[in-house]
Design brief:
Creatine Amidinohydrolase; globular; three-stranded antiparallel beta sheet; five-stranded antiparallel beta sheet
Length: about 260
Amino acid sequence: MVEIKTDAALDAMREAGRVVARALAAVREAAGVGVSLRELDEAARTVLAEAGAGSPFLGYRPSFAPAAFPAVICTSVNDAVSHGIPTGYRLRDGDLVSIDCGARLDGWTGDAAITFTVGTPRPGDLDLIDATRQALDAGIAAARVGSRIGDISHAVGTVARRAGCGMPADFGGHGIGRRMHEDPHVPNRGRPGRGFPLRHGLVLAIEPMLMAGGKDTYRTDADGWTLRTTDGSRAAHIEHTVAITDQGPRILTLP
């Protein structure tokens, strides 16, 4: 069931989104050569605690997962596309890192992701990040009253394909509100003019996941969570929570 939010709910979700933005900024600032992924998770936990916010990630267990997620952020490095679990792995020069974070505040949820390089970027990584950001921007621009989910999907997929990138089948964006994952599903590819109609008060997490090798296939690690490219190519993941409004798309997870 798709829930349409009131304007008051959108304002409340904006506050949750601010917490997400602060947590991602803290993680980005803490990241560096020699820093462990668990230390990045601790940086995000500190921000959530200071804001009085909970984590929709911690303890989350969808049907595909063998165990509940044990952290407040996903840390996906290099060929990991998404859902990476923070471990004792220490960041190295040239690593490509995607961080996904959520926050629950006063009953409402925000969700966003960033991708960045550690130290000296490897060839192609900045182009991959730029293409992923452009895909997100295109998806947000298409998130307008009177359009449909397929218009967002088509916009994201067009940019990704133009950049020669693959996208993991079965994974994409989603509705969001009182829960992190709500209807409707927002694929990262699709046909314009198709799917659920966009109305004022609909809130979506739009999240391109681009794989530099150009393939759409992925594999899942033994942890049951981490998605990796099948060809070992690098991946990037950037996301915002976006409200559809009569005044245009409103990004709720900006700083």
